[in-house]
Amino acid sequence: MIEEYGRTRNPVARWIQEDTGDSVLRLSIHTQGEKGETGDRKKREKIEVEMNEDTLDIPVWEKEVPASPRNVRESIEQKFLLDMPDDFFDFWNLCSELNQEKTEEAFADVGLMLVGPYDVLSGKLDKLKHRQLSNYLCHWRYYFDPPEFMTVLASRENEYHIGYYRDDCFQFPVFVASMSSLQPGRICPMAQNIFGAVYSYLSSKLEKEELQKDSLTERRLREVERYARKQRHTLGLRTPALGKRQRLVVGRCFHGAGVAVDSEELMERRVLPVSEVELRRILQAVTEAETEGERAKRLGILEVLVKIVRREISRGNAAIGLEFGHNLFSFGGGEIFHKYILQVLGESYDRLFREPFLDILQAHLKNRRRGNNMSILNV
Predict the structure, then answer these.
(1) Which are the contacts of 45, defined by CB distance < 8 A and separation ≥ 6?
(2) Can you say whether residue 211 is alpha, beta or left, with left for phi > 0 and alpha for psi between -120 and 50 degrees?
């Protein structure tokens, strides 16, 4: 699916190595058709790339990204390791109608800018001098954004941003949600697609404006509604697809969105060593320790829990690792927890064949920032 992925265990993409006798490995990728929220994804054609043997041991997220494909969808996937749904591109087309010169600013007058993978379409990322994959993966990735969350709209206040949330990196997103510094780490589902999310955002904004008739907010809302109906995109949050996803959620987690695993076996074997309330107290105690000795003692309790969780993961219970790892990540608390996050989530992603999430996580933990402007172009 992605040029950088060569795991033969991957159920969606599989590299086939060709022995050419020279210093270059030519790899062919074959992808299967997948089910997404908008229907069957088309099977991709066979892609051939070349990789120098000297770079094979370098982690994916540290590699240099080669020349961008002409196909915009493939270019986004190359840089962010994730494919985007049809509504993502349809929304760009709407914005192009509203502002042909600066499409990414079509909703700036109501407080939203198109960011992240939209910067591939706008051409902004062409200015990036250092094409290391980690730079792209951290582009508009906020401090509390888990790998499953991809920001596509941002505000200039309170770190407010809107993004797609997907449970599986090889499937389309399951919903669109918002996050902000007013509720650190909290993921608030808004709709199944970006049209519904922007519609929800504008509706709330309009209510605060006391429903002013023919206001700019109302005009933008009607434009979103018109184009969504034209493209047959639902504007609501309660849909059959999200109802099905709800039945697969194994834990709500600190961020509230939950993590889902499409396996009855994994769900039945899920057992957390402590409650979320108890885990939060343990993590809080670590951050509040006044001396190094006291902190080490309190970390010892966490390390015992991590060992229990990792043992469960090794037995096939990756669901417990997802929930526990997401809780550690969403708590924040600084770099002191990063190695535990990487251990637990890394092993869980590997078990579930969600390796792109691991690469995103590794890049993010190396460059985890706070602020309203998360553009890597400003770093």
Answers:
(1) none
(2) left
